[in-house]
Design brief:
The complex is a heterodimer of chains A (about 500) and B (about 475). By secondary structure, chain A is α/β, with parallel strands linked by helices. Chain A has helices at about 10-15, 25-35, 50-65, 105-110, 160-170, 185-190, 225-235, 255, 280-295, 305-325, 345-355, 355-370, 375-395, 420-425, 435, 465-480; strands at about 45, 75-80, 115-120, 175-180, 195, 215-220, 265-270, 300, 400-405, 440-450, 455-460. Chain A is about 35% helix and about 15% strand. Chain B has helices at about 60-75, 170-190, 230-245, 295-300, 305-320, 320-330, 330-340, 345-365, 375-385, 395-405, 410-415, 425-440, 440-445, 455-465, 470-485; strands at about 5, 10-25, 80-85, 85-90, 100-105, 110-115, 125-135, 140, 150, 160-165, 200-210, 220-225, 255-260, 265-270, 280, 290. Chain B is elongated.
Chain lengths: ~500, ~475
């Protein structure tokens, strides 16, 4: 039998059901794995004791013939989700030591389904970043290494960097992430795992520390498409406590996987052929097209003419909302407080010390674009662009059922690279941001390796609330790609 | 009537617009389920949303929307079927989110109007610019610790309606009449208790002055006026201040001012240059608020009769003067009380009794109408005794005083104290004969042409009867007997 940490979520679920091992055994294996890969710095807080208790409770439930669909399965939680009695920091000094007295809706649903929490994973501060380099708790290291270059520490992507790296390194069966402009899909691609961002409104945002409210969505990071379907089925659902969550039924995503892509129309947008894209990315995309064609899908050339405006518009809308969402971290009620002689000075001291450079940059950008005299030129204009991007997709759905692009314009880069050039860093999100701006479901599926042996993902975008088709297409790519490569830094070795 | 002010250099006209903040009566706050009762211990009525905890999200309370729409309808205003909640961004220690959720470009209620009643019985129509919903802030408490400020978030997130008038008022008196009428309307429909002392209703006044007929002058905004008396003082002071500045050859600077009720003057709080840039933008946590016309129509149909309509009806149905009617409709409770008293009775008599005897006694005793020892049916019973001649109007006043004291019904008091009017003509004739017989010189005087003396005779007989003699009958008998001897 394979090591317990090599199992997929689905295999582990079935193994528990068949009595092949207990949740306590499965959880202990993952706690040990976590220790083995601790150098990756995937976690801000490991919670092994809580994990053991939850695993025992899951085993007890199973003995009684009870337990939900994730009963006894150990997973990791991005430290952007508030968890009752467990420190929740958003990767920021300003929330260091903050212990929420409430549980986010998504994690509540996971625990209700019987999942076991291994810990709170590292992330870019307030989910602002594409490298996990902006975390106050230090960078996360990608478990993958460039072929022949073990010295270069690579980034796992971000902002859900810890969540992606720990799943890739076999430290957790699955993890939760959040995606605002690509924060699940890009680290999924960089770490060679599956990252799924559902439709905006599919998962409740209640209890998730906000970055950009109109874009933030929770989603799973897993090693297979099937696992992502299982996770999302539990995470999704209407929540009256989130006015933007949508009251539509959650279908059986797992059941949708096996039905194949025969007859599906797959759009290939010409605007995503970006200048300067490495040939290996272009090549992978073409390979994906061929795989889907071979599986019986019809390939349709489409146009999303406003794609090139998506990234600049995103970097107005997201910071604007963030500048307001982060105003509550003022040192008055919780988290860090650095005293001053006046309330004004206390705010300045607290926020000056509590926020890192990238957060400050975005708060400043956001404040600027909302200011009198600039609002119309920036924020309002960006919202108009956003509407146009949505219309582009809307028109595309008349011709196709899903859209295929690469996930990122490059493979994982080294820690420290692009740090002095925010624009280059922001370009990481160029292919993932359009779906975010339109609120559409999208998945990144590992599909191949770059020339220097790093994983690359393909990106499938679907219609609003049609995650089923996205999973289906992702599954077809997964089967065709047969991606079996594993990272160098992995629990249990290769 | 001229509201113009005399300056050293000629006449000036005051221009006033009011922004009234009215706390909505509702079971919970605008975006959270926390309670809103006045007088709770600090921070007892605070949800995680109200405290601005990380990851918390606002959920709109429908009851508050209903109150805002009802208020808009009561102001004869346009109801906007789509409105948008926006964030007003600024830092303040008792504002936990770092922004206030308000409505900016798309308020729930658009233009409307209020008819105000002036003391001379005249009315004036004041335009309403808009009404929008917003969250209240918490409270900073500075007097509990020498160096620290305490924060009470009970009020944080409570629903306010900001009701903005057009700059249609021309005197402090009109402004007072506007707030009085607005308050009456809010209380009629139960959307705000109108309690200015508890802060449920407070006003900001925009005041400017100009030469009659000229364009609007530069305005100053006086913040947080929490009584009508202070508002009048503040407006009058501010207008005089502005006139003096202009007459001295300077210009008014647009600014926000505070009223110091101790000194009776306004003083600068912040200038236009220091004004916040609130960076309003639509709140991404909330969807646009969309209402169905049917929903609005149903609320409209369920509105109670409003003060203005009631006033017109009282004038027509009861023949009351505009002034009396406006006094009686000022509070729904008063109007209901009056209607109960007037029902099936002489309405002018009812109005007089309510407005002079009842109000006078309540004022003297510092009681509100709801605390009145004399109920409306009970006062009606007293008026019935006057109407059927059981007691005279004069005795009725004594009976009323007794009723006010003891809470007993009029009939019981009349019975117990034997105050029933004497209308027995035999007894009255005897009394008349007795007084005439005892005062022959006055009888002669009367008969000599001094007919005014009839009043003296009346007085004697009423006194002798302890006020119980039926005055009409006594008067008639006296004339018969006195005139008979001419």
């Amino acid at each position: 039998m394979a090591a317990l940490t090599d199992l997929t979520l689905a295999q582990a679920r079935d193994g528990l059901a068949a009595g092949e091992f207990t949740s306590v055994e499965l959880t202990e294996a993952h706690i040990a794995a976590t220790e083995a890969v601790r150098d990756l710095n995937c976690y801000i807080l490991e919670t092994p004791e809580a994990a053991r208790e939850m695993a025992q409770a899951a085993d007890d439930r199973r003995v009684r013939g009870e337990g939900g669909s994730l009963n006894g399965l150990p997973i990791a939680i991005k430290d952007l989700f508030c968890t009752t009695g467990v420190q929740s920091t958003a990767g920021s000094h300003i929330l260091e030591g903050f212990v929420p007295p409430y549980e986010s809706t998504v994690t509540r649903q996971l625990w209700d389904a019987g999942a076991v929490m291994l810990g709170k994973t590292n992330l870019d501060e307030f989910a602002m970043g594409s490298s996990n380099m902006t975390s106050y708790f230090g960078p996360v290291m990608n478990p993958w290494q460039r072929a022949g270059d073990a010295a270069a520490k690579l980034v796992p992507g971000g902002s859900s960097g810890g969540s992606a790296a720990i799943v890739a390194a076999r430290g957790a069966l699955a993890s939760t992430g959040t995606d605002t402009g690509g924060s699940i899909r890009q680290p999924g691609s960089f770490c060679g795992i599956v990252g799924m961002k559902p439709t905006y409104g599919r998962c409740s945002r209640w209890g998730i520390i906000a970055f950009a409210s109109s874009l933030d969505q929770a989603g799973p990071l897993t090693r297979t498409v099937e696992d992502a379907a299982i996770m999302l089925g539990v995470m999704a659902g209407h929540d009256p406590k989130d006015s933007t969550s949508v009251n539509v039924p959650v279908p059986d995503y797992e059941a949708a996987l096996g039905t194949g892509v025969k007859g599906l129309r797959i759009g290939v947008p010409k605007e995503c052929r970006l200048e300067g894209t490495p040939a290996e990315i272009e090549g992978l995309w073409q390979q994906g097209i061929e795989w889907l064609k071979a599986a019986g899908a019809e390939i349709v050339d489409i146009s999303l003419p406003h794609t090139k405006y998506a990234l600049p518009a995103y970097y107005i809308v997201a910071p604007a909302e963030a500048s307001s969402n982060l105003a509550r971290y003022d040192g008055v009620r919780y988290g860090l407080r650095v005293d001053g002689d006046s309330p004004q000075e206390m705010y300045e001291n607290t926020r000056g010390e509590g926020f890192g450079a990238e957060v400050k940059r975005r708060v400043l950008i956001g404040t600027y674009v909302l200011s009198a005299g600039y609002y119309d030129a920036y924020y309002l204009q960006a919202q108009k662009v956003r509407t146009r991007i949505g219309q582009d997709f809307h028109e595309a759905w008349e011709k196709v059922d899903a859209i295929l692009t690469p996930t990122t314009p490059s493979a994982a880069f080294a820690q420290g690279e692009k740090m002095d050039d925010p624009i280059a860093m922001y370009l990481n999100d160029v292919l993932t941001v359009p779906a975010s701006m339109a609120g559409l479901p999208a998945i990144s599926v590992p599909a191949g390796l770059s020339g220097d042996g790093l994983p690359l993902g393909l990106h499938v975008i679907g219609r609003p609330f049609d995650e089923s088709t996205v999973f289906k297409v992702g599954h077809a790519i997964e089967e065709a790609a047969n991606f079996t490569a594993t990272p160098q830094l992995m629990a249990g070795g290769r | 009537m001229s509201d113009l002010l005399k300056g050293r250099t000629g006449e000036w006209e005051m221009v006033i617009g009011l922004e009234v903040h009215a706390q909505v009566i509702a079971d919970a706050k605008l975006f959270s389920g926390a309670a809103t009762d006045f007088g709770a211990e600090p921070n007892e009525q605070v949800s995680f949303v109200d405290a601005g905890m990380p990851g918390m999200l606002p959920v709109l309370n429908e009851a508050c929307v209903e109150q805002a729409v009802r208020t808009g309808l009561a102001l004869n205003a346009e109801i906007n079927l789509q409105s948008i909640f926006a964030r007003k961004n600024y830092f303040y220690p008792d504002m936990p989110q770092g922004y206030q959720i308000s409505q900016y470009e798309d308020p729930i209620v658009g233009e409307g109007e209020i008819v105000i009643d002036l003391p001379d019985g005249e009315t004036r129509t004041i335009g309403i610019e808009r009404l929008h919903m917003e969250q209240d802030a918490g409270k900073s408490v500075h007097d509990r610790h020498p160096t620290k400020t305490y924060i009470d978030l009970n009020r944080s997130g409570v629903t306010l309606m900001e009701i903005v008038s057009k700059p249609d008022m021309r005197s402090a008196e009109q402004a007072a009449a506007y707030v009085t009428k607005l308050r009456a309307i809010l209380r009629y429909i139960g959307s705000c208790d109108g309690n200015m002392q508890e802060g449920s209703l407070r006003a900001d006044a925009n005041v400017s002055v100009r030469r009659p007929g000229e364009a609007l002058g530069t305005r100053c905004e006086i913040k947080n006026l929490n009584s009508i008396r202070f508002m009048r003082q503040a407006i009058d002071y501010e207008a005089a201040r502005q006139i003096e500045i202009i007459e001295d050859g300077s210009e008014i600077e647009q600014e926000t001012r505070l009223f110091d009720s101790g000194r009776g003057e306004t003083r600068s709080m912040r200038s236009k240059e220091d004004a916040h840039d609130y960076r309003y933008f639509p709140d991404p946590d909330l969807l646009p608020l969309r209402l169905e016309q049917g929903y609005v129509d149903a609320l409209k149909a369920s509105l109670p009769e409003l003060p203005e309509a009631k006033k017109q009806r009282f004038m027509e149905a009861f023949g009351l003067s505009a002034y009396d009617a406006s006094v009686l409709v000022a509070e729904r409770e008063t109007a209901d009380y009056f209607e109960t008293v007037a029902e099936g009775r002489d309405s002018k008599l009812a109005a007089n009794w309510v407005m002079s005897e009842l109000f006078g006694s309540l004022n003297k005793a510092e009681l509100s109408l709801s605390e009145s020892p004399v109920s409306a049916p009970s006062l009606g019973g007293l008026i019935d005794l006057i109407a059927d001649g059981t007691i005279s109007g004069r005795i009725a006043k004594d009976v009323f005083a007794d009723m006010f004291e003891t809470g007993k019904p009029a009939a019981d008091i009349v019975e117990e104290k034997g105050l029933k009017q004497v209308s027995d003509s035999g007894a009255l004739e005897a009394a008349v004969a007795e007084v005439m017989g005892a005062n022959p010189d006055r009888v002669a005087d009367y008969r000599g042409g001094n007919h005014k003396l009839i009043g003296w005779f009346m007085g004697q007989i009423m006194k002798a009867s302890g006020g119980k003699a039926n005055p009409q009958m006594v008067n008639q008998l006296l004339r018969e007997k006195l005139d008979a001897g001419d």
